[in-house]
């Protein structure tokens, strides 16, 4: 045979997951897919109900970027300072100094939580607290758990270094007594309400305790630095708009009131720190200017003495209009340069040389120096005596101008320091949103639904990609098994229901094809025994045996259906017959065939059920009584169908195959692999037997066909 025309192996075909095959796999595993979606959705709904709600507190502050930096150059008055980056204020707002004040005020280094019942405890406690202010009584006899309404206020708790971060268990033993132990149950401390108790470095003072005796609370004392870092990580600070100076501060927590108090405390602490910082800046500038004022005064006095001495020595010297104009310009430039230099020294106390404000000052000084050089060249063209007089007068007037300006600024800074205000303005005080921000129930349920769809689809794809089962008749025929029929996938309510349940027209027609094929296959059979088996469980062999027997009986053939699976036979349930007596009792000599054979709802179809499960089923099937029974039954029936166990599970099918005239193998679409079929054939070959044919069962309709649409709508 030309190998180029042979079909590829079934395993290779199964590895190619096309769209049509994937759709068929989705339909085949639709129940598992829907179960996965339903499970994920239910878990999502349960999570939204059981998850602790988180509330969000929000506050808004505005930063006024006029930081009390006093310019000595009057020409810059009215020009706003360039605002710093918002990240600077964010870092100050979340600094340890600001956050630490709130941690100390709210006692955030200590967490107190009642012990709750796992999974449902928090939900039950929240339900109780919404309806009543009283303490919920213990349920189910579990007094150690808190069921809602418990209150524990600790005035102070000091623990040794070894117990930081370790859970401590506080048990309410009586209305005014308590017991403190560690996580292992070791007693650490006993005391009374309102009375400080101590044991070495461990000190505890409880101000309030409302709980039933036996209720346990879990206390965890953290180091101050750890508590500050935990609160810093919870804070969310962002700027509204680019360089707007408006900061939005958010904090989430399970206790709405506590989150609001914490955020309010942070904004107020930030304002206080800003006032202190502004006062310190004014103080530093005032100290700097106070140190510079005597130096400028000395320069002024020395300049005046030098000018008076030169005039006494040279006499009166006439200065023209050009000289006076140059003098005014020079005095103005010198005053500006002197003021810039002192301002530079003041900025050097607060900023680095790379700060934008410092760089701007240096750029202005370079411009003024260039103007001064041009003016100096013009002054160099005057007579020598006029140059000296102008130089001396310029020094005196420049020093006098700077002295007056510093004096004025000192007075202004004194007023500013006395009435220092914050550059931070609280626009919206901290408030808590009414609705919790988490969990968002509609979003979570929808996400769970989508996740279930994706997970189910991925599982189906993975299962389809890993399946190497035979999916067409060619796969069986390539293994040397003629396919007598392909039975379509039928609803379970038809195959598993009562025997009179109407069958789908397509399935019924496939059974008729199988009946016709069997008629030709049995022309050379040595007897009227038809054995139906499978390679592995769940192939549907029992359903094929029952429905085939039904079609044959309806066609006028007198049929006996024998449940030869003495281990797990269930034909009595499917046919709604009595379990005993059955085949096991007949082979054991406890009943006669006439007593065990039962009629069914279909005329011409009788059934011999399996009976009570015997301890030695293989020995009973190998006995001479079994051979005599099957030979005797053939005289009363035109066809006897033996429903046997799977071949690869037990040897019962091979034992009975030695007496059957026709052996039929049922293979389920996409489930039984080529290796399983080959192993079954080897089992028969080792006993000198052979399979006369195969049935491909549960073949799904191709996607997007009328048959598929009919199954979907039916």
TrEMBL record:
SUPFAM superfamilies from the xrefs?
P-loop containing nucleoside triphosphate hydrolases (SSF52540)
Q: Which keywords appear in this protein's UniProt record, sorted alphabetically?
A: ATP-binding, Cell inner membrane, Cell membrane, Coiled coil, Kinase, Membrane, Nucleotide-binding, Transferase, Transmembrane, Transmembrane helix, Tyrosine-protein kinase
**How would you describe this protein's topology in the membrane?**
Multi-pass membrane protein
Q: Which Gene3D superfamilies match?
A: P-loop containing nucleotide triphosphate hydrolases
Q: Which residues form the Tyrosine-protein kinase G-rich domain?
A: 384-464
Name residues in a coiled coil.
358-402
Q: Which InterPro entries match?
A: AAA_dom, Bact_polysacc_biosynth/exp, GNVR, LPS_length_determ_N, P-loop_NTPase, Wzc-like_C
What are the EC numbers?
Answer: 2.7.10.2
- Polysaccharide chain length determinant N-terminal domain span: 19-104
Q: What does the UniProt entry say about where the protein is found? A: Cell inner membrane
AAA domain ranges (all copies): 539-658
A molecular function annotated in GO for this UniProt entry is: non-membrane spanning protein tyrosine kinase activity
Q: Which reaction does it catalyse?
A: L-tyrosyl-[protein] + ATP = O-phospho-L-tyrosyl-[protein] + ADP + H(+)
The record's comment on protein family reads:
Belongs to the etk/wzc family.
Under what name is this protein listed?
Polysaccharide biosynthesis tyrosine autokinase
